[in-house]
Amino acid sequence: MKKNNPIDFKIVESMKAFAENYAKTTDTFFCIDPEVTDSVIQGLSKNKDLFGAPLCPCRYYDEKIDEISLAYWNCPCVPMRERKECHCMLFLTPSNEFSSLRQTFS
Ligand code: SF4
């Protein structure tokens, strides 16, 4: 397990690219508050950097390594893949009151 900070820049960029592609693929959008989106991307990137997988950053886990091996909360998590439910508010459906029209970071 890696312990150093800061988060690898390339990992943050790859998580952003993933989020852009996945939003377009699923017809979902980023939050109207960009700080929410940035914070989730940072959390996903940190877990990817530390543990090798983008474990959802918006939940508590007793053991992150064990949780990653189950794959349920590895982004995109099962609730997102099955029902477009992202409790982190990274991917929002157009009907969500907090949804913007953005699917990119530029
Ligand atoms: Fe990813 Fe699911 Fe967490 Fe949303 S709730 S950031 S889709 S793991």
Automatic annotation (TrEMBL):
The record marks 87 as: Increases the nucleophilicity of the active site Cys. Its cofactor is [4Fe-4S] cluster. The keyword Iron applies. GO terms for molecular function: 4 iron, 4 sulfur cluster binding; metal ion binding; oxidoreductase activity, acting on iron-sulfur proteins as donors. The keyword 4Fe-4S applies. Its EC number is 1.8.7.2. It comes from the Eukaryota. Keywords: 4Fe-4S, Disulfide bond, Iron, Iron-sulfur, Metal-binding, Oxidoreductase, Plastid, Redox-active center. Disulfide bonds join 58-88. It is an enzyme of class 1 (oxidoreductase). It catalyses: [thioredoxin]-disulfide + 2 reduced [2Fe-2S]-[ferredoxin] + 2 H(+) = [thioredoxin]-dithiol + 2 oxidized [2Fe-2S]-[ferredoxin]. Heterodimer of subunit A (variable subunit) and subunit B (catalytic subunit). Heterodimeric FTR forms a complex with ferredoxin and thioredoxin. This is Ferredoxin-thioredoxin reductase, catalytic chain.
